[in-house]
Automatic annotation (TrEMBL):
Record's protein name: Endonuclease MutS2
InterPro entries: DNA_mismatch_repair_MutS_C, DNA_mismatch_repair_MutS_core, DNA_mismatch_repair_MutS_sf, MSSS, MutS, MutS2, P-loop_NTPase, Smr_dom
E.C. code: 3.1.-.-, 3.6.4.-
Keyword set includes Nuclease: yes
Organism expressing this protein natively: Chloroflexus aggregans (strain MD-66 / DSM 9485)
Domain Smr residue range list: 744-818
Nuclease as UniProt keyword: yes
One Pfam family named in its UniProt record: Smr
SMART domains: MUTSac, MUTSd, SMR
Molecular-function GO terms, alphabetical: ATP binding; ATP hydrolysis activity; ATP-dependent DNA damage sensor activity; endonuclease activity; mismatched DNA binding; ribosomal large subunit binding; rRNA binding
UniProt record similarity statement: Belongs to the DNA mismatch repair MutS family. MutS2 subfamily.
Top-rank lineage group of the source organism: Bacteria
Length: 820
């Protein structure tokens, strides 16, 4: 069972293989990289992933680890096995390859238990030390046969050098002889037809006896081998021929040894290529910042699980530039098995589709995937992808027919694969599990009438549900959004679009269908509003309601996300202050224990001293005459002293235990306080106080009352819309502190109200241990903001303050309180 080549091509797996090949070290491993295919066997996929993970860990510890100078010498080895002779350079390449294998085998065999698979592969590398030594002793680094290859060769080369020197000495004496000076064209020695000659002027031919081997183009110069050196030339050439024969004999013998070891050599190259491919996979994973996915054993017939079998966290397409790709979170299985992605063109739907399929292929090929952990993937026996170019403005019938032909072929294959095996046995019935499959359809049902295309798409999705496959499909049809919402096992998703910038964000949101942005984009671009409204009137009312509902869902989801983020920030602040208070309490408890221990030691020392005095008194009583009455009185005084010491210890312990602070004295009523007016049973705000008459003017709703101060009682603090911290889920043994919100809303206040009420809030916030508070005063005319910041500038509990920035702008002031 294998994944179709068409799926590999459609999902651009061949481009990933090309990039992987750049990280290989020699041609044999490059061939493996270019022919790498995903496996459909669970154990094999896990073995590949384990090898890649081990290789990555090994490269992080030994970055310079390579396969050395290995070469693909399999063809040369087969040539030698057929009786062919190899030259010195080829033999040296074979030796270098075998030496690299021996070195790598040695290094891998010493690995610890973190690298079991690499260590096992190292043991499988063949060892051919005798062949390596034989080649390295006979062939030099430049591919030439060394003198040490055989005694005969060493002797012949020595004799060649001696004969050559004699020949050169004789020729040198001739060209410098006065007798021949006039006959020579110039005093040099040259070679013609492999024999040494001298240039003689043609007119002096008779003055030099010898054999003519050549003449110049003009005929004025003859190249003559003098008779005096013919024998020397002959001897030198004979020795050269003997040397060449010996070299050929040595090369033939070494080639014969290579031919005898052809199986081991080919196996060595194959193993080196496999190891180099593993290291290439690791280097590619490091370069793409990939991680190892969890490979799970999942089939459609398995019991439902809350954890989806396919989950990609911040997944990135490996062929897109890292600085431009937007990570996506995507999962399949669990509560739904089919994901329907909707959204605008060029919004990233196809990228999400291809990313899912390509990362599944990479994982099953043993590659780590560009996603964050803990991403997980099952092993798919089938991966099908029908992804076409939908960017053209014209879709012909042939395009639709091509897509339908692919879809029909996919459905037929899956139906046949999941049919019950013929002649089932009890064991087959027990073991049978439908194969896992991943199906990717781009623009499902497009290219034909929208009504028919939408109906056809719903029918296809229904069949995929019956087959139990995991599937991702993209579409523009609004009917499919409602179908996905109402059909169990199908979930909506969308790629977001920024109407303000008219650009896609490429972020994938699961659970929310895409919203049509055509009218919004047209309005943003400046189309006449009358035309926009006319176009809106043409839209079916039901469809418009669905689109409005989707837009509302997206707005509510964005608001909920923002509120959740703010709540998380507040929770983090609360945890920080709670941790600080816990640390302070722990430090206080430690100091208390130290003080108690010191006091206890001091009291015990005093008691020891009193006991020593008592012993001395008893000894004196035995030695001298002291009245028993005096001794009894002394013992009573000693007992009283011990009791006093015990009482002092208990009193010290009580003093060291922190007690709840006494309730603060209630301050007098002030202007701005919220009070309860007993005579009318309503709450109001004090506007003025007459201390002489002991009366106060109170604003109650739309009325002002003048009442006796004795009728007024301070009302409980109103919520004022302020957000409070939720009580901790687990009891925390901390000192009590005022319940003060980090946000103080003053919008709608009069300027005269700010100073006193803000002062009280800052005091309470400081006592509660808050480090920073958020003051909301709104923008308006700026008068309220100015008063607030004037108060903060002179307040002793405020260390600094700034504007709200992105968290409210000029309508908010962030104040940082002094440390306690």
């Amino acid at each position: 069972m294998s994944i179709p080549e068409t799926s590999l091509h459609t999902l651009e797996f061949d481009a990933v293989r090309d990039r992987l090949a750049h990280y290989t070290a020699f041609s044999a491993s490059r061939e493996l990289a270019l022919s790498l295919t995903p496996s459909t066997d669970l154990n094999e996929v896990r073995r590949r992933q384990a090898l890649t993970a081990e290789a990555r860990l090994l490269l992080e510890e030994w970055p310079d680890l390579t396969i050395g100078g290995a070469r693909d010498v399999r063809r040369s080895a087969h040539h030698a096995a057929r009786g062919g002779m190899l030259d010195g350079t080829t033999l040296r390449d074979i030796a270098a390859t075998l030496r690299s294998a021996a070195t790598l085998r040695q290094r891998l065999s010493r690995l610890d238990d973190r690298f079991p698979n690499l260590r096992d592969l190292g043991y499988t590398l063949p060892a051919l030390p005798h062949l390596i030594d034989a080649i390295e002793q006979a062939i030099g680094d430049d591919g030439q046969v060394l003198d040490s290859a055989s005694p005969t060769l060493a002797r012949l080369r020595h004799e060649v050098r001696v004969a050559f020197n004699r020949l050169q000495e004789r020729l040198q004496s001739m060209i410098h002889s006065p007798t021949l000076a006039a006959a020579l064209q110039e005093p040099i020695i040259t070679v013609r037809n492999g024999r040494y000659v001298i240039p003689v002027k043609a007119i002096h031919r008779r003055e030099v006896r010898g054999l003519v081997h050549d003449q110049s183009g003009s005929g004025a110069t003859l190249y003559i081998e003098p008779l005096a050196i013919v024998e020397l030339n002959n001897r030198w050439r004979e020795l050269q021929s003997a040397e060449a024969e010996e070299v050929q004999r040595i090369l033939g013998a070494l080639s014969e040894q290579v031919g005898e070891a052809v199986s081991a050599i080919v196996s060595t190259v194959n193993m080196l290529a496999a190891l180099d491919l593993v290291f290439a996979l690791a280097r590619y994973a490091i370069a793409t910042r990939s991680t190892a996915p969890e490979i799970v054993d999942w089939r459609p017939d398995d019991p439902p699980s809350t954890e989806p079998p396919l989950r990609l966290i911040r997944a990135r397409h490996p062929l897109l530039p890292p600085d431009k790709v937007v990570p996506i979170d995507l999962w399949l299985g669990g509560t739904f098995s089919i994901l329907l992605i909707t959204g605008p063109n060029t919004g990233g739907k196809t990228v999400a589709l291809k990313t899912t399929g390509l990362l599944a292929l990479m994982a099953q090929a043993g590659m780590q995937i560009p996603a964050d952990q803990p991403s997980r993937l099952p092993v798919f026996q089938y991966i099908f992808a029908d992804i076409g170019d939908e960017q053209s403005i014209e879709q012909s019938l042939s395009t639709f027919s091509s897509h339908m032909a692919n879809i029909i072929r996919v459905l037929q294959t899956l139906t046949e694969a999941q049919s019950f095996p013929a002649a089932p046995t009890d064991q087959a019935l027990f073991d049978y599990r439908r194969p896992a499959a991943l199906v990717l359809f781009d623009e499902l049902g497009a290219g034909t009438d929208p009504v028919e295309g939408s109906a056809l798409a719903r029918a296809i999705i229904g069949r995929l549900l019956e087959l139990g496959v995991l599937a991702v499909a993209t579409t523009h049809y609004p009917e499919l959004k409602a179908f996905a919402y109402a059909t169990p096992g199908v979930e909506n998703a969308s790629v977001e679009f920024d109407v303000e910038t008219l650009a896609p964000t490429y972020r994938l949101s699961i659970g929310v269908p895409g919203h049509s942005n055509a009218l919004a984009i047209a309005a943003r671009l400046g189309l006449d509003p009358a035309l926009i409204e006319q176009a809106r009137s043409f839209i079916d009312r039901n469809e418009a309601q669905v689109e409005d509902l989707l837009a509302g869902i997206q707005r509510e989801r964005a608001a909920a996300t923002e509120a959740l983020q703010r709540a998380e920030e507040l929770r983090a602040d609360a945890e920080k202050y709670r941790a600080r208070l816990a640390a302070e309490q722990q430090a206080f408890a430690a100091e208390r224990e130290v003080a108690l221990a010191a006091a206890r030691q001091e009291i015990e020392a005093e008691l020891r001293e009193v006991r020593q005095q008592l012993r001395r008194l008893r000894e004196e009583y035995r030695s001298v005459s002291i009245s028993r009455q005096w001794l009894e009185e002394a013992e009573k005084r000693l007992a009283a002293t011990a009791e006093q010491a015990q009482q002092a210890t208990e009193r010290l312990q009580r003093q060291m235990v922190p007690s709840a602070p006494p309730p603060p004295a209630e301050r007098p009523l002030q202007v701005g306080d919220t009070v309860h007016v007993a005579s009318v049973g309503l709450n109001g705000e004090i506007m003025a106080i007459d201390t002489d008459d002991e009366t106060a003017t109170v604003q109650v709703g739309g009325f002002r009352l003048t009442v006796k101060c004795s009728e007024l009682k301070r009302a409980k603090a109103a919520d004022n819309g302020e957000r409070r911290f939720a009580p901790p889920e687990r009891p925390v043994n901390l000192p009590s502190m005022p319940d003060v919100s980090m946000t103080f809303d003053m919008r709608g206040w009069r300027v005269s109200e700010v100073s006193d009420r803000l002062d009280r809030y800052l005091n309470d916030a400081y006592l509660a241990g808050l480090h920073q508070v958020r003051l909301i005063h709104g923008k308006g005319t700026g008068a309220l903001r100015q008063v607030v910041r004037d108060v903060l500038a002179s307040h002793p509990l405020v260390a600094s303050f700034t504007g709200g920035g992105r968290d409210g702008g000029d309508g908010v002031t962030i104040a940082t309180l002094v440390d306690r």
